[in-house]
Amino acid sequence: MEAQHQLPQIELGATGFTVSRLGLGGFHQVEISSEIVDQVVTAFIEVGGTYIETARSYGRGASEDKLGRVLAGRRDGIVLASKSGARDADGIRRDLDASLKALRTDHIEFYFFHGVNTLQELDSIIGPDGAMTGLLKAREEGLITGLGFSSHRPPLLYLEAIRRLPLSVILIWDNYLEEQYVPEIQREVYPLAREKGVGITAMKPLADGFLYREPELALRYALGSGSEVLICGMNRVEHVQQAARALVKGPLDAEARQAALHRAPELGTYVCRQCGVCSKALMALFRLEGYVDRQMIDFLPHDPADYALRLRLANWFDLGEIARERFLEMDWDQGALQTEAATIACPYGIDVGRKAALALAKLRDDKPAYL
Ligand code: SF4
User: Fold this and answer.
1) Probe target for ligand 1 pocket from 286, 343, 351, with the most ligand atoms within 8 Å of CB
2) pLDDT over 70, % of the chain
3) Are 210 and 313 in contact (CB under 8 A)?
4) Of the candidates 110, 124, 275, 325, which lies 20 to 30 Å from 351 by C-alpha distance?
5) Across the strands, what pairs with 148?
């Protein structure tokens, strides 16, 4: 790609690294041959890409192994990250040793506590002989530069982790679908991370592929949401070039962001944009509905491919149980919510009365009469 199409670069928190704002995600390298991984990595480096991340668990080491093969001889200038699901010191050291071997390197810049989904897991990591001890020792030995944290659970865990762990970087999700029901990521997690000098890398800018219709819009929207690096799971050269073109254009401005929320086909006339016309209680109800199924199941007609995608992705985060627990904890006046909902004229064309009935049914785990 020509020089004017080179990826923008950014300082990653207080890590001392300057990296490309586009990162190459390792998960989708599992699906393709080493030959195609080579093409993808080559294209990524050609557009100025410098941040590559993977995990021990991706394909049980297959992603690390393929990336290690194709990075041989061009490791310089690449900031490499990998992750381990181990929560104890010995386990994470074994994983780190395996990652180093598979990636054919003697040093990994960031090694992550991967998929930490409960406070108990976080306690184990920090406790005696926990994984934190293992990684701090590895850092002393020069095997890694810094510690990272990722989770698929609500932002509270990130806030706790940033406060309690000596982190260099986090990996969190960020896109215009999830932003509608987990706004705490931008409002709370990002400011705390910046305050602590923790680098912010963000995955799922296309919401696991759900925002496939307008990838440039989704990428430029996410680029302006507060993270430093967007991690994209690109498994073909065209995806790298497409993402690079979007990032070179830069983030959407405030007006274009608002326009995107109006016209985004995936949000349509069902996903609540939290615009403030409804009461706080009603908006909270719709955020909890997002926890159940990302507001993907709307009981409206979709073409077969879109419907199959919705079914596959709706429960990806598996937050339904948490949503239903929170729903039971809160003192909802369900009748009043439905009465209010029936009176709302939503600027996004949402039938709020119908949506409230569906959201309540999902959270009570029953069905409204008309389904
Ligand atoms: S008016 Fe529509 S977008 Fe605004 S809070 Fe209510 S349902 Fe959400």
Assistant:
1) 286
2) 98
3) yes
4) 325
5) 112, 169
CB atoms under 10 Å from CB of 256, counted, come to 14
Which residues does 120 contact at the CB level (< 8 Å), separation at least 6? none
Q: How far apart are CA 354 and CA 90, in angstroms?
A: 53
Dihedral angle over CA of 177, 181, 183, 189, nearest 10: -100
Ligand 1 center–CA 278 separation, angstroms: 6
CB of 267 sitting under 6 A from ligand 1: no
Ordered DSSP codes for 91-116: HHHHHHHHHHHHTT-S-EEEEEE---
Q: Quote the distance between the C-alpha of residue 362 and its chain's center.
A: 24
**Is the pLDDT confidence value at 1 over 70?**
no
- Inform me whether the pLDDT recorded for 61 exceeds 90: yes
**Given the structure tokens 């219709």, which residue do they identify?**
213
Answer yes or no: is pLDDT of 365 > 80: no
- Which pTM value belongs to this model? 0.94
Phi, psi of 347 (to 5 degrees): -65, -10
Q: What is the pLDDT of residues 213-245, one digit of tens each?
A: 999 999 999 999 999 999 999 999 999 999 999
Residue pair 298/190 in contact (Cβ under 8 Å)? The answer is no
Please say whether the beta carbons of 61 and 83 come within 8 A: no
Q: What is the pLDDT of residues 328-346, one digit of tens each?
A: 998 889 999 999 999 999 9
Rg of the chain on CA atoms, in Å: 21
Q: H or E element: which one contains 283? A: helix 280-293
Domain boundaries, the chain: 3-259, 280-364
pLDDT of 369 > 70? The answer is: no
Confirm or reject: Cβ of 79 under 6 Å from ligand 1: no
In this prediction, residues 308-320 reach a mean pLDDT of 93
For the domain bounded by 3-259, which CATH number is listed? Answer: 3.20.20.100
Q: In terms of DSSP H, where are the helices of 115-229? A: 119-126, 131-140, 156-164, 184, 190-196, 215-223
Asked if 169 and 198 touch (Cβ cutoff 8 Å), the reply is yes
Whether 17 contacts 11, CB under 8 Å: yes
Report yes or no: 275 and 348 within 8 Å, Cβ to Cβ.
yes
Does any ligand 1 atom lie closer than 6 A to the CB of residue 240? Answer: no
